[in-house]
Write a structure and sequence with these properties.
Largest sheet: none
Number of helices: 8
Mean pLDDT: 78
Radius of gyration: 18 Å
Length: 209
């Protein structure tokens, strides 16, 4: 599945995918940091759903699926992760006002803003900008972008951190392995589902109150 659907992801080498390039699915681009995004979404979802009654069938179902998927993501670490984690933990210790006094890097998710590089998929043959059409579904592209920005804001723990070094990227083979284990399509599709579940938990909590 992945080799054909990610044909347009324009790999930098045989090891890594290029963030921001098309995945082969309409309106879905290669995610710049899928591991960090999923770690945040799954951990946040588990924290929120724990506020529901323990006997809730919905809570039990969400916890079982989310914990299983979280364990897959946590077990898959990119090359150079240990060295990066040491440097990142030091940065966390130097900024207790942002992360808390006893924050652990394994539970802190910060992603610096990434600027998508221009590539030939953005330009038609006559040089005109290729403007994507509205995505299918109940939400517009602008609404989905707004929701994505809100999640990114939460991941940055409420502020800009100067000199933050992003977690090393997963290799293409590692991403493919995660996709096979989760069985939810491309990792970008897995993220979409995780975002939906994260939002649904909020709705469930609101209806409970």
């Amino acid at each position: 599945m992945r080799p054909s659907k990610h044909l347009f992801a324009a790999v930098k080498s045989d090891r890594f995918l290029t963030a921001g390039n098309p995945t082969g699915l309409t309106g879905l681009l290669t995610h710049p940091a899928p591991r960090s995004q999923l770690l945040y979404l799954y951990s946040s979802t588990l924290s929120k759903v724990a506020q529901l009654p323990a006997h809730s069938v919905y809570r039990q179902s969400v916890e079982a699926i989310t914990k299983a998927r979280l364990s897959i993501i946590e077990a898959t670490k990119p090359p150079g992760y240990e060295e990066w984690a040491e440097r990142a933990q030091q940065k966390v210790k130097e900024n207790p006002e942002m992360f808390g006094k006893d924050a652990d890097i394994s539970r802190v998710y910060v992603q610096a803003r990434l600027t998508r590089e221009r590539n030939h998929f953005d330009v038609e043959w006559d040089g005109e900008k290729n403007v994507p059409s509205a995505l299918e579904g109940t939400r517009t592209a602008e609404e989905k972008d707004s929701h994505e920005r809100s999640i990114q804001a939460a991941m940055t723990q409420g502020g800009e951190l100067q000199g933050w070094e992003n977690e090393p990227p997963l290799e293409a083979s590692q991403i493919a392995e995660i996709e096979d284990k989760i069985g939810g399509g491309l990792i970008e599709e897995v993220i979409q589902v995780a975002v939906g579940e994260h939002t649904l938990v909020d709705t469930m909590l609101e209806s409970k109150s």
